[in-house]
Write a structure and sequence with these properties.
With about 400 residues, this protein is of the alpha/beta class. It is built from 9 helices and 27 strands. The protein has 3 domains: about 180 residues, FAD/NAD(P)-binding domain; about 120 residues, FAD/NAD(P)-binding domain (3-Layer(bba) Sandwich), CATH 3.50.50.60; about 60 residues, Enolase-like, domain 1, CATH 3.30.390. Strands 3-2-1-7-20-19 form a 6-stranded mixed sheet, covered by helices on one side. A 5-stranded parallel sheet has the order 9-16-10-11-12, with helices on one face. A 5-stranded antiparallel sheet has the order 23-24-27-26-25. Helix 1 packs parallel to helix 7. About 45% of the residues are buried. The longest helix is centred in the C-terminal third of the chain and has 19 residues. The structure holds flavin-adenine dinucleotide. The site of flavin-adenine dinucleotide (FAD) has 36 residues, from helix 1, strand 2, helix 7 and strand 23.
Length: about 400
């Protein structure tokens, strides 16, 4: 019997596995998933789950759908890979041999340098993380510090305000999300948080998290100290490639794949762990839910081609990336990349509804929608074919 092994049981791994099955692969598909439950949605973790919505994140029935005949190895961890011998070694010492391998091991939150292991200090990546943080908040935390105003930090700050906690949001950059959306949009996001009562501290880092067994305060790089009951660290993620050490596979800020998601013959990669050769943007690693869905599917199809099932010609994976974030009553959506110049082309900040376009070298690179889904989706579709900057911005 032919065998496919998928490492990582989240959205990218599951989509690759289901694409393989529905595309005609009739061998065994084993999914090595170190979390103890089937695939679930991560985006609600910083939103509905934290707010207390019990139904916001449950494992998908699709993932345990018996008609897909997937063998889930829940709670198992891949420790190493021997591509020459076509073997994955598990934490139990067991070895899985394969004809095809999907690398979908995702990413892990970064920690602060010297971050102490104190009660009350959290990251949010898994359902367990989110439920642990929520329990800590429910236990009577008044003051919450969120370190890092990226998407996840900004969402956690918004959700905590919605729950009624005092929130301080600490960001070393000059504006929240400045690296992703630029300083102008970052300034608008900072204003929204301030208007909601968040104490936004910009341009400062965290020198120390202070406490004995439990966190008591954070010391900032401007010399101030803030008393807190809970700290949430949201300073980005690193791709989970440690289990590939010594395998000889190319790793450089993620496992390196070509434009068709192929890493080596019979090995594909997808989702947050994969840095692939995007025809539009060059080598890039993207940490978005929809991207993990689409790249999971594309990687599954690529492996079908390697294994001689389904399409025989490998397809180039060339999407316009898509992301959303919910903060208070604001829905942000980004199509493409926020790269280069920025101009608000539709609506206005005052109206609380607008689209900002980004552009470089005469072409629009991305569209950011602020509470305007229909228009943002239209830009997303137009970006597939390319939009001239002069035409769009006038
Ligand atoms: C709190 C939060 C909110 C988010 N909100 C949004 C949003 O609003 N919009 C959006 O577009 N995106 C959002 N994202 C990002 C999105 O969830 C990720 O891009 C997506 O989950 C990536 O999927 P993945 O399958 O590539 O990796 P992951 O979801 O990271 O899954 C990888 C899986 O592999 C497992 N694993 C790792 N190493 C091994 C190993 N050696 N052996 C076995 N298993 C292993 C991991 O434990 C994990 O279960 C959010 C993410 C988080 C954490």
């Amino acid at each position: 019997m032919r065998d496919v092994v998928v490492v990582g049981g989240s959205i990218a791994g599951f989509m690759a596995a289901s694409e393989l099955r529905t595309g005609g692969f009739d061998g065994r598909i084993r999914i090595v998933a170190d979390e103890p439950i089937h695939t679930y949605e991560r985006p609600p973790l910083s939103k509905g789950v934290l707010a207390g919505d019990e139904a916001a994140s449950t494992s998908w029935t699709a993932a345990s759908d018996e008609s897909l005949a997937l063998d889930w190895l829940l709670g198992e961890r891949a420790m190493s890979l021997d591509p020459g011998g076509h073997r994955v070694v598990l934490g139990t010492g067991d070895e899985l041999t394969y004809d095809g391998l999907v690398i979908a091991s995702g990413a892990t939150p970064r920690r602060l340098g010297g971050q102490p292991d104190l009660a009350g200090v959290h990251v949010v990546r898994t359902l367990d993380d989110a439920l642990g943080l929520r329990a800590d908040l429910d236990a009577g935390a008044d003051r919450v510090a969120v370190v890092g105003a990226g998407f996840i930090g900004a969402e956690v700050a918004a959700t905590c305000r919605g729950r009624g906690h005092d929130v301080v949001l600490v960001e070393p950059l000059e504006q929240p999300l400045a690296r992703v959306l630029g300083p102008e949009i970052g300034a608008i996001i900072a204003d929204v948080h301030r208007a909601e009562g968040v104490d936004v501290r910009l341009g400062v880092g965290v020198d120390a998290i202070v406490g004995d067994e439990r966190v008591e305060s954070i010391r900032l790089s401007d010399g101030s100290e803030v008393d807190v009951d809970v700290v949430v660290v949201g300073i980005g993620v690193t791709p989970n490639t440690g289990w590939l050490d010594g395998s000889g596979l190319p790793v450089d800020n993620g496992v390196v794949a070509d434009a068709t998601c192929s890493v080596a013959p019979g090995i594909v990669a997808c989702g947050d762990v994969a840095r692939w050769d995007s025809p539009r943007y060059g080598p890039v690693r993207i940490e978005h839910w929809d991207h993990a869905v689409d790249m999971g599917r594309a990687a599954g199809r690529r492996l079908l081609a390697d294994l001689g099932d389904g399409a025989t010609e490998p397809e180039v994976f060339d999407p316009v990336p898509w992301f959303w974030s919910d903060q208070y009553d604001v829905r942000l959506q980004l199509a493409g990349r926020a790269d280069g110049d920025m101009a608000i082309t539709d609506g206005s900040v005052e109206d609380g509804k607008f689209v900002a376009l980004y552009g470089r070298d005469g072409m629009v690179t991305g569209a950011l929608g602020w509470n305007w889904p229909a228009k943002t989706v239209r830009y997303r579709m137009a970006l597939e074919d390319g939009i001239a900057w002069d035409e769009a911005v006038g």
